[in-house]
Amino acid sequence: MSEPAATDDAASTASSPPPPPPPAQHKSWADEADDDAAATDESTTATKEPSTSSPSLNVDELTIDENKTPLKLLDDPEDSNIQAVTSGDTPYTSAATFEDLNLSAELLKGLYVEMKFQKPSKIQAISLPMILNPPHRDLIAQAHNGSGKTTCFVLGMLSRVDPSMQAPQALCICPTRELAIQNTEVLRKMGKYTGISSECAVPTDSRDSLPIQKRAPIMAQVVIGTPGTIKKWISYKKLAVTRLKILVFDEADQMLAEDGFKDDSLRIMKEIEKFNSSCQVLLFSATFNETVKNFVERTVKRDHNKLFVKKEELSLDAVKQYKVRCPDELSKIEVIKDYIFELGENVGQTIIFVRTRQSAKMLHKSLVDMGYEVTSIQGALDHEARDKIVKEFRDGLTQVLISTDVLARGFDQQQVNLVINYDLPIKHTAEYTREFEPDYEVYLHRVGRAGRFGRKGAVFNLICDERDERLMSKIENHFGTRVSEVREKSVEDYKAALKEAGLLQ
DNA sequence: AAAAAAC
Predict the structure, then answer these.
(1) Architecture label for domain A51-203+215-309
(2) Does the CB of A213 sit below 7 A from strand B?
(3) Where in chain A is the domain with CATH 3.40.50.300?
(4) In angstroms, how far is B6 C1' from A273 CA?
(5) Within 13 Å of residue A284, how many CA atoms lie on the same side as its CB?
(6) pLDDT given for residue A503 in this prediction
(7) CA distance A27 to A119
(8) Residue A336: how many CA atoms within 13 Å on its side-chain side?
(9) In this protein, which residues make up the domain named DEAD-box RNA helicase Q (predicted)?
(10) H helices within A191-334, ranges in order?
(11) pLDDT tens, A390-419?
(12) Of all protein residues, which has its CA closest to the C1' atom of B1?
């Protein structure tokens, strides 16, 4: 069951000569920015430039592969809603237990004692053999919110690191500060007994940290951070990429989206590839829309593996979705305080999502003025304030957190049972069209803040005009779900909703 | 007409 795991890593630590010293980097990385940006554009149009391995060809081959190869679905018929396409003839066996994965005793202890895990979740059972076993192919993996994606790549990073080599061997890039910190904490917890060192690459307060030029090079074996800081560390040669074995993009669809972090991500990837073409790349997210899916498949190596879920099956049944029709903006606040807060007091923590920083501030002030204890977070706050607000929420000192989409993705707080969409998420792309498009991916991610790991949860969408109605029904159609209405002033409706969601007796 | 992220 677990034969293949021993060869590659073990051999390289035991018998191969020590790795060569990092080659001298003559040019500052920042100097190349312009060339790189130009090359990047070309590769996206898939016309020329063999800087990576001819992208246009890859697409064709992948398409053929997908159609011809019967899905090598693993041994569990229940997994049929996850579509797995594996590359080549490598057989993978789904891991029924963590023991099946040939993990070190220290890592197993971390999983059982620190994380209190018993056995791999579905996505873990399928993806971990692909991540851990040679030939360590790249992987694009989609899985439901709260299904344990983080464990997949954190375990991947921890088990691929050679504990005896003090150099960065695993790098994980995340879209927000909060997610980078959270992932670092998970890694430290899971890896507690392994002795593997880690560093969180996010901006620090300039007052209590050395300027980058004076800092020592990073020796940590795993680095997790946000694009800007990682780019900076690489360009100042504080983060060496030559020993990296594994590169992870969390929320990969956002990290590679045109209006996301695509340029940064591609630049980092190219820099790593330049010194180190064998580095394994993992792309994880709950969402990959067709556009970005198409693009990311050209971003990774040709012989990658992939796991996808149908969009209809992404909306968790565990989280019940409702809509409340409010006559105007002001009545949204009434609905929140007079009904949702009133009834939702003992159902756990709540996140209220808003579209803009301004409305986060406004709503925060309104609710505080009315005597409610709420906090709010958005990207314009300084780092200290952001960290403090998240910590208070995690410690349970605050029950209600107002947030922009800074926390829409990945934020894992198991006590969150209620999500309120004060505004529905909108795509900003169609600049000159009059019709608004919902941001389906952000909607799904927001909903996913409740019902972590199969827990109960409810979402209330506050809608107040024709535009909202259309957005809401588009969302329903897209995911093939029905969002039932809770009448604005009906206590009974709210009660029934919370009962149906399993949050109220 | 947005949010995120480096100075």
Answers:
(1) 3-Layer(aba) Sandwich (3.40)
(2) no
(3) 51-203+215-309, 319-500
(4) 23
(5) 29
(6) 93
(7) 48
(8) 29
(9) 96-125
(10) 227-235, 252-255, 262-275, 290-299, 329-334
(11) 999 999 999 999 999 999 999 999 999 999
(12) A428
